[in-house]
Amino acid sequence: MTDAAELKRRTAELLAAHPPAGTDPTDFLKARFDAGLAWVHYPEGLGGLGAPRSLQAVVDAELAAAGAPDNDPRRLGIGLGMAAPTILRYGTEEQKQQFLRPLWVGEEVWCQLFSEPGAGSDLAALGTRAVREGDGWVVNGQKVWTSSAHVARWAILIARTDPDLPKHAGITYFVCDMTDPGVEVRPLRQITGEAEFNEVFLTDVRIPDSHRLGDVGDGWRVAQTTLMNERVSIGGMRLPREGGMIGPVSKTWRERPELRTHDLHQRLLKLWVEAEAARLTGERLRQQLVAGQPGYEGSGMKLAFARLNQEISGLEVELRGSEGLLYDDWTMRRPELVDFTGRDAGYRYLRSKGNSIEGGTSEVLLNIVAERVLGLPSEPRTDKDVAWKDLAR
Question: Which residues are part of the catalytic machinery?
Answer without folding.
Answer: 230
